[in-house]
Write a structure and sequence with these properties.
Strand order of the largest sheet: 1-7-6-5-4-3-2
Shape: globular
CATH architecture: 2-Layer Sandwich
Number of strands: 7
Number of domains: 1
CATH topology: Alpha-D-Glucose-1,6-Bisphosphate, Chain A, domain 4
Largest sheet: 7 strands, antiparallel
Structural class: alpha+beta
CATH superfamily: START domain
Amino acid sequence: MVISYSETINCSPEKLWGVLLEKAQHPERTIKEISQSKILQKYSDGFLREMTAVGMVIKERITIDENSHEIKFSLVDNEAFDGYFLNKMETKDNGLILTYLQDWRPKNNSKKDFDSQFYPVLKNAVIAMKNMTESKPEQQLSRKNEKI
């Protein structure tokens, strides 16, 4: 099942995109439910990452599309789920919109209520990103940029 959450973000598109790229590389810095992560392999359009979150080890193939301002996190070799997670940045009439979308499908019926468990995590992650980008000056957010 697909769940998503969107917020209007009051910062420059460049600032938000930079923070989204940083989060893709180091999600444990911005998402409290993630205890650790590591990049396993790099590609021309992204990387393969493994992380521990909400009691699961999650491996993802991350694809970065700078033209459409989307970062897609596709599950790899996951025993419980198939699917992906998407970070999308859009400029609309009412401002800069950040959307997190999760399309994870359980491989068996034992995970029936997972949407209700993950929705608060997804919503809180968007709100944390909003608070982070709106409250801190750009120079505080920038760190040594790592090449992806």
